[in-house]
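Handout for the seminar on molecular recognition.
Each group receives one record of this type.
Step one: identify the two inputs.
Step two: read the structure output and locate the region that could contact S-adenosylmethionine.
Step three: write two sentences on what you found, then compare them with the reference statements printed after the record.
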Amino acid sequence: MTTLAQTVAGVRARLAEAGIADAAMEARILVGGLLVLSATEIFVGGDRLLDAAEIAKIEDAVARRLKREPVHRILGRREFHGLDFLISTETLEPRPDTEVLVDSILDHVRQFGDRDIRILDLGTGTGAIILALLDGVPSASGIGSDISADALNTAAENARRFGLEQRFQTVQSHWFDKIDGSFDIIVSNPPYIRSDVIPALEPEVRNFDPMAALDGGTDGLAAYREIASQAEGFLKADGCIAVEIGFDQRQAVTELFEAAGFKLLQARQDYGDNDRVLIFAKSVFDVAKQKKKLGIPKEAG
Ligand SMILES: C[S@@+](CC[C@H](N)C(=O)[O-])C[C@H]1O[C@@H](n2cnc3c(N)ncnc32)[C@H](O)[C@@H]1O
């Protein structure tokens, strides 16, 4: 018979031997996730004996991790902005850096008071961005759109899990093609990695994240080009559009949006201090006034 503590230690040793960084943390997340135990329960319940079915489940998961499948994909879920999101084959695992995009928008939403807010999330994946926003803003409703039907099913299931399904709709669409209406806020974390960089990514990303979520075309900007060129017709006069970007894309993406009639309201950095989020408003709108209203310092962006 094996105890929980022995099992966690054994998993940690095998992951470390395979060169997986943070093996101790991953072992705890993997075993805890599979047995539905919190970090504290793992810590205090080390003497618990595991049965054969539990051990088989853990063995299967470790074999997958040793083939470089990411822990959260093995578990089928990942926490994002305090919500436990289901992940599926065609969804990206939501990343902590994307929480910066959510927090930036939550800061801005104050300007709208209690009025109904319509949000569009292009390339919604698990629904991470829009569902975190709907969770934080009770007067908001919106659409999560994606090219992938599998992703939209997962986003709809996540909305049900969080009790947000009444305020959330999915639309299968290539960017704006099947979208109707106008929105206070448009958000997108589109695929933005240059095609030639993808083979050099970590196997966890290149072999397990869906290619449609990664590949931004030859210069990494294909999705921004399409989104920027059409966004104007879908945004209310005082609305804003926020996009996540790669660490070196601020200038190129800003130029694309400026060429399409937008002005940069704000740029935000991620936890590693890289440029990660750009927020634009229609340039016909008084951007200085907009910044004042939103509490954005004049020099920001
Ligand atoms: C980087 S992932 C972002 C997923 C999610 N929003 C997040 O932040 O975790 C990009 C998403 O865009 C979707 N996508 C790719 N090409 C698309 C297209 N032409 N039209 C609409 N969505 C697309 C992908 O399926 C994927 O879900």
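Reference statements: The radius of gyration is 21 Å. The chain has two domains: 2-67, 81-294.
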